Amino acid sequence: MNSKIHILGATGSGTSTLGNALAQVLPHTHLDTDDYFWVTKFTEQRPVSERREMLRNDLSRYEKWILSGAVAGWGDCFRPCFDLVIFLWIPSEVRLARLQQREVERYGNEALAGGSRYEESQAFLEWASLYDHAGMEVRSKTLHEQWLVELSCPILRIEGDYSIEERVARVKEYLNTNEPN
């Protein structure tokens, strides 16, 4: 039980960060959906059938794993694989500030006004800002909530601006309370 964990939430909510941190304290291998979704990170998407096959192969390779990122839509076939799903949500203003900072860290001045990646960066931030109020047509809280309803495994919700240490502690407490003896 709880050997196959999926963490999802909005872009910038900390799914990858939590996955990495949990893999440091649990006997689980961390996998990230970005590694399956993108051929060239953030520019060229991998075909759906190819990403599904790659993910299926990796999930079958490990007994205990943590998959961070969203598979809603393209990876619905993996729903039965999960023993536990962790849903992360943080206030939009906190998440968007993180994403803005990450864009500058990733691309430097090129992400700022006048830079060669400025328009691309602004389009990404605009897309990310839709999460909390958009409908099912984009990656949104509405889409994720609907996806969660269709799961047969337990869901641990961590909603709020918590530190990574607080999130890890919440997950470990949940696992300790809900693991069979």
Structure write-up:
By secondary structure, the chain is α/β, with parallel strands linked by helices. The chain has a single domain, classed as Rossmann fold (3-Layer(aba) Sandwich), CATH 3.40.50. It is 45% helix and 17% strand. Strands 2-5-1-6-7 form a five-stranded parallel sheet, sandwiched between helices. The chain has a two-stranded antiparallel sheet with strand order 3-4. Helix 1 (15-25) crosses helix 7 (164-178) and helix 4 (92-107) runs antiparallel to helix 5. The model has no long low-confidence stretch (mean pLDDT 93).
How many structural domains can be distinguished in the coordinates? Answer: 1
Output the strand order for the largest sheet.
Answer: 2-5-1-6-7
Order of helices and strands: EHEHEEHEEHHHEH
> Please, what is the average pLDDT?
93
What is the CA-based Rg, rounded?
A: 17 Å
List the helices and strands and how they pair.
Elements: E1 4-9, H1 15-25, E2 29-32, H2 34-37, E3 38-40, E4 44-45, H3 48-61, E5 65-68, E6 84-89, H4 92-107, H5 118-129, H6 141-149, E7 155-159, H7 164-178
Parallel strand pairs: 1-5, 1-6, 2-5, 6-7
Antiparallel strand pairs: 3-4
Helix pairs in contact: 1-7, 4-5
Relevant terms:
single chain; 181 residues; alpha/beta; Rossmann fold; five-stranded parallel β-sheet; two-stranded antiparallel ribbon; globular
